[in-house]
Amino acid sequence: DAIKDNYLKERAEDIRDVKRRVLRNIFGQRIEGLDKLRKKVIVVAKSLTPSDTAGLKKQYVQGIVTDRGGSTSHAAIIARSHGIPAVVGLRNFTKFVKPRDRLVVDGTMGQVVLRPSVETVKEYEEAQRKFMEMEKELLTIKDYPAVTLDGHTIELAANLETTDELDDVIGHGAKGVGLFRTEYFFITRQNLPSEGEQYKYYSSVVKKLAPESVIIRTLDVGGDKIARWSHDYQESNPFMGWRGIRFTLTRKDIFRTQLRAIYRASAHGSVRVMFPMISVVEEVIAAKEICKEVKEDLVRERYQVGDEVEIGIMIETPSSVAIADHLAKEVDFFSIGTNDLIQYTLAVDRGNSRISYLYNALHPSILRMIRDTVNAAHKAGIWVGVCGEMPANIHGALLLLGLDIDELSASPYLLPEIKKVVRSVTFDETRALAKKALQLKTADEVRTAIEKFISERRPELKELIPEATR
Question: Which of 74-78, 132-136, 464-468 has the highest mean pLDDT?
C-alpha cells in the first residue's frame, strides 16, 4: 500500500491474486466460474479474462464492471455479444464496492452508481424502459434487407463466441456469421478438444444457420486468450508474440485437427475458413498448403467435405495492410479486424484504461488503412468485411459503408441498429462523407464531421449517437 506508482500498485495486486490462488489450491478450495452462477448478479472484478467469462449466462449476469480494460477489451466485447450492460476501466472501483451492494450499471453513458437512492433507481428504470422500447422498434426491421436508399447492398453478419448465442444470431436478423471465435471452445479446457468434439461443435452452428455462411476463424490463442494447455513459458509481450497463425503453424498437430473438424463440418452447409494475425505472405501460403493436405486426406478417408470452402485472412497488422495487394492474390476474402489493427497501428494497449483515450477507430490513419485494404481487395476481385468493434456505433457504420466495405460483422444485438443506419442513407452521401473524413487530421475532426452530417442530412439518426459522446 506504500507504493505510490499506480502501475506498480497494479502489479503488486497481481502478486496478491497469485498468492490467493496458490492458497486456494493448497487448501483444496475450488474457484467457481461465471458459468456456475444460478442467481442474478452484477459482476465486479479487477479484470476478466476469456476463461473467466466462458460459459457466462446472460440470464444471471445482469451487468459487468471492471477496474481495468477499454472499450474493446475482452470483458467489453463479451458483454456486447450477450447484450449485457458493462462499464470497464474504472481503475479502483473494487476498493469501494462490497458484496450485496446495489448498483446501477449504465453502459450507454459509461457510468456506475453505487448504492443508488430510490429516486435514482426510478430515473434509471424509466431510462431502461425507453431503451427497451427503442430496441423493440429496431427489431421490426431485422428481416429487411440492408440496402441504402439508392439501392446499394451490404451484408450484415454476426460475431459468435459460443453456441449459446445462436438464437440471438437468428433472432436479430444476421446473414450468417462473419466471425466465429473458436478459441472459446478451447481456453477453458484442461486438455485439447478432439477432432470429433470439434466437428460436433462446428457442425451444430453450420447446420442451424444453413444456408447462410459461417466464417470459422482458426484458433487464435495468445495475447489475453491463454489456454491452460497452450503455453509452457511466459512472454514479456504476449500481444506481439506467439499467437494466432504463429501458434498454429508451430503446433501443426493442433492446426490439422481443427482443420479436419472444420472441413468435415463444411459438408453440412456454407463454411469459410479464416486465419488470424497474418503479417507475412509466407504464413498464408503455409496455411493454405496444410488446408489442401487436410482436405485430400479427408477425401481419401471417405469423409464428406464441402465443394467450395473459401479461405480468407484477418487484416489486423500494419504489415498486412502494406502488402494487401500481394495477400489478395492468395485468398478469397479479407476480414479487417479493427480491434487489433487499431492497437498495433496506434501503439495502444486496448485493455489499458490509462491510455484508452488514444484508442480511436476514427483516427485518420485507421481510415486510410481500411481504404487501402478495400482498394487492394477489390482490385484483385475479392470481397472484404470488417469484424471488429468499429461497426458497433453509428460513426463507424457510416464510414465503413462509405469506404465500400462489403460485409459488416458485429454483435447480434447491434445488427438492427446498424441496419437502420444503412437503410436511412444513400451510398453516395456516405462515400462523400468518407472522402471528407480521409482528408481530416484528427479523430475529433472526423467525429464532428459525422455528427454534422447526421444533424444536417439525417436528423432521424440522432437517437443512435451514444449519449456519452454527444
Answer: 132-136
β-bridge mates for residue 173, sequence order? none
pTM of the model: 0.87
- Cell representation of residue 430: 456516405
Hey, where are the domains in the chain?
32-113, 139-469
Catalytic residue among 74, 82, 363, 395: 74
CATH superfamily of 139-469: Phosphoenolpyruvate-binding domains (3.20.20.60)
Specify the CATH number for 32-113; select among 3.40.50.720, 3.40.50.300, 3.40.640.10, 3.50.30.10: 3.50.30.10
Which of these is catalytic: 82, 268, 387, 395?
Answer: 387
Q: Per residue in 146-190, pLDDT tens?
A: 999 999 999 999 999 989 899 999 999 999 999 999 998 888 777
Picking from 393, 415, 365, 383, the residue whose alpha carbon sits closest to that of residue 142 is 415
Our answer to whether residue 291 is catalytic in this structure is no
Query: All 3 cell numbers of residue 166?
Result: 445462436
State the amino acid at position 435 in one-letter form.
K
